[in-house]
Design goal:
The structure is a homodimer. The first copy, chain A, has about 350 residues and is α/β, with parallel strands linked by helices. Chain A is built from 11 helices and 7 strands. The two termini of chain A are about 25 Å apart.
Chain lengths: ~350, ~350
């Protein structure tokens, strides 16, 4: 065991791999818009806030990197800013190492095969959940985590426990469920953020930076009015529809299987993120910014686009539980239901949140 | 481009992947015997020769790691020795990082999926050819390269050039060819070792160690009398056989395709390795040892075993040039020819060479 690991086992959440027509790689344009929107913000923080220490090696990690190309764009933005920072303070030459981090079951072969040939850094991969320790103490200078922290480490136990008040019967997601379910998801999010920040506090050098970009809901907006959640809720209703209407066709999917399937995603709010950072206490908040409407998840997308996008993110999880044969039928229905609900969706809320943290001196 | 890279492009040489019945993973028992034989040797060198510097991070790389499980055994042996060394000198706690290195097209997903759960180190992957720079200056404490350095970075140009004296007509390997071919392979080996040692000299900290284990031939033994080479030569004769006898069956394999296919492997000798290290000048030789007969590549193997073993190593290369459909036919013939030649093979020579180097102070 690596030093300082926490004890729970993280849920693996692989994006659809490189060979699928619904691969995350070719269906992550929305995340790319978000990456672009954060470029200037990250640049300003690096120039103004990064404290460069002695030593010839500078380590950057992109946590939850998935399989590109977004990770390469994020990393390029950060590396360029860091190089300008070095020039501006006439520091001696540093070697930049970039550690691409994700779960062991991420499609690293696809990632490596598409590494940019003109990169100015040494490329490594670091295996493990970002809710756990991945790096030695004080070894990392900049952490980036873009669109990763809405994935929980696991579905909260009680949500899948028939005897619990928080049993999420007939649902696969929390946002439109009873308050006990929402509360369990919220508690799990708090625990996970505590692990993330505690582990990063150990790994990041004093003066080093952590960038977080995450889908979010405006403070006080109920979970059920958030576009991301409405998209997932519709997916959940498709499961129930399939079970009830098409049981003869599919045969082996029982209602109970849907009851014990839940998507481990939670949409946070600015206030929840700030509270988590303050509870942890190791980081100062250098910037917290709500990204513009251009990053809305359904901006300019057809129902079909939106459905394919959701498929790219959830396919692995669904396949693990129900096998592959359900996928086409499910997402056909999902697309159709999205079309019906499109006006509702547009009236929903969605923001992306950019946060820049700096590791305080010990 | 990373700093200090050399300019040529290395030939990718992937082992058969995790899903193949001929996968390297399930057919690398011979290499495992070699790994076991080196355990005590590495342990002694670590305890007696490793110079531990200040700093809390200790980095080990296994170069040309392939996809396990041998790499995990090697790494475990080294990590255990390093931990004992730390205890013996009462050094303060160090975090051990292990960087598994191989080409981008190595099956890293299989590697990561089988990482030992009880490991005491942080596991990373570092992408790139070991004939090139992979790590920042003075960042690595121990390099291990087990059964990797007999793979050349490329087939020498002239060997595939119809107008050259070294044109390797009718052959796919160098050992039983004319002296001009052998000379080109030997020159390429010298160049490659120069690159390997030059890059490692930049990356390894002063007092750090490099372990090399490599199949070899006794000094003065001709290339044609070495078992590894005899196995490859028989494979080459099978290609020719297929072209000549079975052209109707296979259709599209022409003699010229065989003429322009060559296996980029060279079997070195103790004296050649020593010369390369002395020419480089950055390392002292702490140990150079010929491993016992137990590591002979055909010891205890049937012809079928030996053929499957050769297939696991060469399948990727052959497939790249000729496609998959030739493989079964080729190795059926190979097994049969190995059986016929078994008495000859046993009379051949084969050693494994273990070398421990220490980076001199600058």
């Amino acid at each position: 065991m690596a030093h300082g690991r926490t004890n729970f086992s993280s849920h693996e959440f692989p994006m659809a791999s490189g060979v699928s027509p619904f691969s995350y790689r070719t269906n992550s344009g929305y995340q790319r818009r978000v990456v672009r929107a954060t470029k200037q913000l990250m640049h300003a923080v690096v120039m103004e806030k990064l404290e460069v220490e002695n030593g010839s090696i500078f380590q950057i990690t992109d946590m939850g990197c998935s399989i590109g190309p977004n990770t390469f764009i994020s990393v390029k933005n950060i590396v360029e800013s860091v190089e300008l920072k070095f020039q501006s303070i006439n520091t001696h030459k540093k070697h930049i190492q970039v550690l691409f981090n994700d779960h062991a079951y991420n499609d690293f072969n696809t990632l490596f095969a598409s590494l940019p040939s003109d990169k100015s850094y040494y490329a490594h991969a670091a295996i493990g959940s970002f809710y756990d320790r991945v790096f030695p103490d004080k070894s990392i200078h900049i952490v980036n985590c873009s669109y990763g922290l809405h994935f929980l480490s696991r579905v909260p136990n009680n949500v899948e426990n028939r005897k619990s008040l928080a049993w999420n019967k007939g649902k696969v997601y929390y946002s439109h469920s009873k308050k006990e379910v929402i509360s369990e998801y919220s508690k799990q999010y708090k625990k996970d953020m505590e692990c993330f920040l505690k582990c990063r506090a150990q790994e990041v050098v004093p003066g080093g930076l952590v960038f977080i970009t995450v889908p979010a809901r405006p403070n006080k907006t109920p979970h059920s009015k958030v576009i991301y959640n409405m998209l997932a809720e519709i997916l959940g209703s498709c499961f129930l529809h399939l079970v009830k209407q098409l049981r003869n066709l599919l045969g082996d999917i029982e209602e109970e299987e849907v009851d014990t399937f839940n998507i481990p995603v939670y949409i946070t709010s600015p206030i929840e993120v700030e509270e988590a950072i303050k509870r942890n206490g190791s980081f100062s908040i250098e910037k917290i910014e709500i990204l513009s409407k251009e990053t809305s998840p359904i901006n300019g997308l057809t129902a079909k686009d939106a459905s394919v996008h959701i498929r790219a993110i959830t396919e692995g999880l669904i396949e693990e539980k129900f096998g592959t044969k359900i996928l086409d039928k499910l997402f056909q229905l999902h697309e159709q239901k999205l079309e019906d609900a499109y006006l509702d969706l547009i009236s929903g809320e969605a923001i992306s949140l950019f946060i820049a943290l700096k590791r305080k001196p010990n």
